[in-house]
Amino acid sequence: xxxxxxxxxxxxxKSHKIFVISxxxxxxxxxxxxxxxxxxxxxxxxxxxxxxxxxKIKTLRGELPLEVQDLEDEIExxxxxxxxxxxxxxxxxxCHA
Length: 97
What we know:
Layout: H1 3-7, H2 14-29, H3 37-96
């Protein structure tokens, strides 16, 4: 599997991502003048891809409290509906007695 393929596998092969990162780190240890333009571009692409993934995680992490609040609000609304229907059912039961 190529380095770029490992980065685009949707997280299915974490061991490959670790390999890619370690290989990339080894490549970066080389003097920049020793790298070909192709290698520099590949490294830049890999770095940008990893930064994009980090940004996605940060965005998701930032949205999580809003998602939790929405779910709590929904639970509260459903609980209110249940209570209202119970009250109506109890009232209806008293009417027929």
